[in-house]
Specification:
The chain has 650 residues and is of the alpha/beta class. The chain is 61% helix and 9% strand. The protein has 3 domains: 31-342, Up-down Bundle (ABC transporter transmembrane region fold); 364-441 and 526-644, P-loop containing nucleotide triphosphate hydrolases (Rossmann fold, 3-Layer(aba) Sandwich); 449-525, P-loop containing nucleotide triphosphate hydrolases (Rossmann fold). Keywords: ATP-binding, Cell membrane, Membrane, Nucleotide-binding, Transmembrane, Transmembrane helix, Transport.
């Protein structure tokens, strides 16, 4: 179907009406970001819009005065005839220069405020949305479309609205000057620039459709670029010689995108040339008419100068006006994604009448007939799952990967809500509390904790940035995580910058980073402690020492929930639950489970057969450091080491 048929044109008009409805929202965005600068900017635009018309009119005055004064001598009357309009012309030119310079300053200040305001809106919205949104590629497309273009396109809309206002004022002034020479002249001026509007709207719409269609490809190119330039992938890229692979993948995507973009711009340029020739022909025809009038004595030299400059500037103004209108329409299409993103509502909602008391468990935490599947998946991770965790005890969950262990911690903290069933604290559904009140009672060590590019102290304080607890609490958390001594040995102690993104940074080993994350969890000082693989990156000696200190958490009245693959970690829990296929298959203490000779016992016996030992029976001196005497006696090992050797403990 042709793009120029009536249905297509009607569709564009309807779309334009829909998109231009965003203009008031955009203006409100600008006003909220920088209201004072908007007022100054508006005043400058009004003045800039009036000055060109004044300049055009003064051109006629100067030329007519000059034609009268030529050959009349230097009498004061003749000089004054030229001096007055000449002086006014100089004043107008000076004002144009001043307002132009001020406009650059005002626009910069305004754009900085607007950009920061929009980014804050995006950051706030991203922070309030659920994890469920991050499971969707559509979310990433919308986020990319909003964040990559929102600031720049908002500023362009600002400039285009300004240009629209300024050029509109000037055009009205120019039209008023041209009307005495014939009403048809302003009409020719308008119609001669319509092809330019058509070119802008048509080709900018094509570009937007292309950009929207290729968002995922652009994100893919960005991903390949990050793989080549960021530290998180640097080791494997070099170890597996993947540099050329990702560089070629990046080049292939970019070559494809680049070719399509260049083709779009080529077609736009050719169409722009055609529109320009149309406008030039219209100007030539009108100038021919005015020249014919001058030859008949119906126009003065000043009239010709005024007309030429008026029509030429008017044509440029009209072209700019219509192009601004076209670009405004196009940029509104881009900003639609911003408002779509800001309109997302989280699925995790607070109750209308939340409970006043904090959800601190005194008796139990219960998962009652819970069924849950992750967004955009059909398979349930948990189905009719029930489990009760005693308060002020240590409960360990062990099981195969994918059994649903980590999902339990996410449901308890309301990072997700179950599709069916309830999560209860002392018999009260967690959805009856404010989400933040619930999360304030929980400290979590995630399986893949963040490595903040900040100082050691800041990394730990991230556990609770809303409550300053002092250096003593900071160091106490580090001591519980067995990282205090290591921190003291760093160049600046707790003030040492971690990571290499910023100057003077120091990196840590994987185990040390995990202990920093543990310290962060301890620093939060919450009554519910969730530890997801807390010792997975620790050596056996550090694990044993940490386990000896971990019991103090429960002694302080906390409820601990440990997710682990390590039996050497799980065995110290008050109760152990073994998960398989989304359900509990065994429960009991370590001793009880070993005696049952079930799934847990067979895995534990497999460890013993491979030379594993109960770390509580390891000599105290042996736990301080690895053997230094060349002994071949194996230290206490982890389940991960067993898996690496090909033996699945489950």
């Amino acid at each position: 179907m042709s793009e120029n048929n009536p249905k297509s044109i009607r569709k564009v008009v309807q779309s334009a009406g829909h998109l231009l409805a965003y203009i008031p929202k955009i203006m409100k965005l600008m006003w909220d970001a920088a209201s004072r600068w908007v007022l100054v900017w508006g005043g400058l635009l009004g003045l800039q819009g009036l000055l060109p018309g004044a300049s055009v009119y003064l051109t006629k005055w100067v030329l007519d005065a000059a034609s009268q004064a030529i050959g009349q001598g230097l009498a004061w009357g003749n000089v004054r005839l030229i001096a007055i309009p000449g002086g006014l012309m100089a004043l107008v030119l000076l004002l144009q220069q001043v307002t132009k310079a001020m406009n650059g300053w005002v626009q910069t200040a305004q754009s900085e405020h607007v950009e920061d305001h929009i980014q804050k809106r995006i950051h706030d919205q991203a922070g309030r949305l659920d994890l469920a949104f991050y499971e969707s590629s559509d979310y990433y497309d919308t986020l990319n479309q909003a964040s990559s273009k929102a600031s720049s396109k908002s500023l362009e809309v600002l400039q285009q609205l300004g240009g629209f206002l300024q050029n509109g004022i000037t055009l009205v002034t120019i039209a008023a000057i041209l009307v005495p020479y014939g009403l048809w002249i302003p009409l020719v001026l308008i119609f001669s620039t319509l092809p330019a509007l058509y070119v802008v709207v048509k080709h900018n719409r094509k570009y937007h459709n292309w950009w929207e269609r290729r968002t995922m490809d652009q994100r893919r190119a960005r991903y390949y670029d990050m793989m080549l330039t960021y530290d998180f992938a640097a080791q494997e890229i070099r170890a597996f010689d993947l540099g050329d692979h990702f560089a070629e993948a990046y080049s292939d995507v970019r070559k494809w995108l680049r070719g399509e973009r260049i083709e779009l711009e080529k077609n736009k340029s050719l169409a722009t040339i055609g529109a320009g020739l149309t406008a030039l022909a219209a100007m030539g025809a009108v100038m021919g008419v005015m020249a014919w009038r001058a030859m008949r004595g119906l126009a003065t030299i000043g009239d010709l100068g005024l007309f030429y400059r008026s029509f030429r500037e008017g044509q440029g103004l009209m072209r700019n006006l219509l192009q601004n209108a076209g670009k405004l329409y196009t940029n509104a299409m881009f900003l639609e994604h911003l408002f779509d993103f800001l309109a997302f509502e989280p699925t995790i909602q607070d109750p209308e009448e939340p409970r006043d008391e904090d959800p601190v468990p005194q008796e139990t935490i219960t998962f009652e007939e819970v069924s849950f599947r992750y967004p955009e998946t059909e398979e349930y991770v948990l189905e009719n799952f029930s489990l009760t965790l005693p308060a002020r005890k240590v409960t360990a969950i062990v099981g195969e990967n994918g059994a649903g262990k980590t999902t339990l911690s996410k449901l308890l903290g309301r990072l997700y809500d179950p599709q069916e069933g309830r999560v209860l604290i002392d018999g009260v559904d967690v959805r009856e509390h404010r989400t933040q009140d619930l999360r304030d009672q929980i400290t979590t060590l995630f399986q893949n904790p963040m490595r903040y590019q900040a100082t050691v102290a800041q990394n730990i304080i991230m556990g609770n940035v809303h409550r300053e607890q002092g250096r003593e609490a900071l160091e106490r958390a580090a001591q519980k995580a067995l990282i205090h001594d290591t921190i003291q040995d760093l160049p600046k102690g707790y003030d040492t910058q971690l990571g290499h993104w910023f100057e003077g940074g120091t990196d840590l080993s994987g185990g040390q980073w995990q202990r920093i994350a543990l310290a962060r969890a301890y620093y939060r000082d919450a009554p519910i402690v969730i530890l997801d693989e807390p010792t997975s990156a620790m050596d056996s000696w550090a694990e044993n020492k940490w386990l000896q200190s971990f019991g103090r958490l429960v002694d302080e009245g906390r409820t601990a929930f440990i997710i682990t693959h390590r039996f050497t970690t799980a065995m110290h829990a008050d109760i152990i639950h073994v998960m398989g296929d989304g359900e509990i298959i065994e429960s009991g203490t370590h001793e009880e489970l070993v005696e049952q000779e079930g799934h847990y016992a067979s895995s534990w016996k497999a460890q013993i057969e491979h030379g594993w030992r109960d770390p509580s029976q390891v000599d105290a001196n042996e736990t301080k450091s690895p053997p230094q005497d060349g002994s071949e006696e194996p230290p206490v090992k982890s389940v991960e080491e067993d898996v690496a050797r090909g033996t699945d403990p489950f």
